[in-house]
Amino acid sequence: MADLPPTQSWATRLPADSKWSLEAISSGCSRGTLPLHELYEDLPLARHLLIGRDEDQCPIVVSSQLSSRIHAVLAFKNLSNNNHNPQLMPYLLDNNSSHGTYLNFKPDSKLPSKAYVEVYDGDIIQFGKDEEKKKFYIIKGPVSGKSER
Question: Does 2 fall in a domain?
């Protein structure tokens, strides 16, 4: 069984009106967009979302031979001091996966294991290095501005 990453004290749940989503792309076609706040509805105590092949533990299931059972973790952090109007930003952690987690198709974009990295609206995420770029995910949110990676 894969080790579960610890929950960070700063990790917060997405509110029901959150615009953050994850779009799955396969062979150049959209396979659907997942509103991330909906995943928290079935996980009343969760403050982060697990990503991987294990359908029993991961609300975001990645069906790829390059994905680990618990491949990565997605957590949101409130960057403002205002809980009534939070500025939530996503952070992604590679859970010491066998094939790595990559951002934006850049050669040096492999995330370090066990460290949270801020991701931005429009970032492209690969769980395992798919050289043909056939399967990836795009994180989408209310905050405009592309990553400067």
Answer: no
